[in-house]
Amino acid sequence: MYTQVWTAVLAGVESQAVRVECHAAQGLPKVVLTGLPDKAIQEAVPRIFSAARLSGLPISLSQRIVVNLVPGDLRKSGTAFDLPIAIALLAAVGLRPADGLARTLVVGELGLDGRLEPARGVLSLVGAGSGEVDRVLVPTENLAEARAGCSLPLAAASTLREALSWMGRDTREWQAEAPPLCGVPREAGPDLAFVRGQRQARRALEIAAAGGHNLLLVGSPGSGKTLLARCLPGILPPFSDAERLEASRIHSVAGLLPSRHGLLNHRPFRAPHATISDAGLIGSGRSPHVGEVSLAHRGVLFLDELPQFRRPTLEQLRQPLEDGRVLISRAALRLDLPSRFTLIAAMNPCPCGMLGDPRRHCRCPELERRRYAERISGPVLDRIDLQVAVPALPPEDLLGAPNSEDSAAVAERVAQARLRQRARHGASGREANADLEGSEIRAVCRLGEEEGQVLGRAIQRESLSGRSVDRVLKVARTIADLAGREEIVLGDLAEALLLRTGRQGLARD
Ligand SMILES: Nc1ncnc2c1ncn2[C@@H]1O[C@H](COP(=O)(O)OP(=O)(O)OP(=O)(O)O)[C@@H](O)[C@H]1O
Ligand SMILES: [Mg+2]
Ligand SMILES: [Zn+2]
Question: Does 195 contact ligand 1 (Cβ within 6 A)?
Answer without folding.
Answer: yes
